[in-house]
Amino acid sequence: MPDVIDRLTVLACKFRDERNWKQFHNPKDMALSMSLEAAEVLELMQWKSGEELQQHLEKHREQLGDELCDVLYWVLVIAHDHDIDLRKAFAAKIAKNEAKYPVHKAHGKAKKYTELD
Ligand SMILES: [Mg+2]
After folding, report:
1. Which CATH superfamily is domain 4-83 in?
2. Of the residues 44, 80, 90, 108, which has the fewest C-beta atoms closer than 10 A?
3. What is the pTM of this model?
């Protein structure tokens, strides 16, 4: 039985293939598209903060979900096209982050790993 990553990747690639769009999907433009979709997540939050931001996001929860899915779409197809197993890559990256940010140094601190004592 395919896992969620496999199922979502199949959906994303099917969407692309039905439209014959793979021909346009070079790595640079795919990364650019992913970044633009991430900017659309930011756009939802622009000029708002605190309680106003929280209320705005609650009111626009579906739109936030749509934009997060647009980012995820690109993550999935870029990983697919470059034969990256996101399950393994994600686990490996979390392990790298755990090494960079040991709990005893990073707990409760919003600092880059280079600035941890
Ligand atoms: Mg979008």
Report:
1. MazG-like (1.10.287.1080)
2. 108
3. 0.92
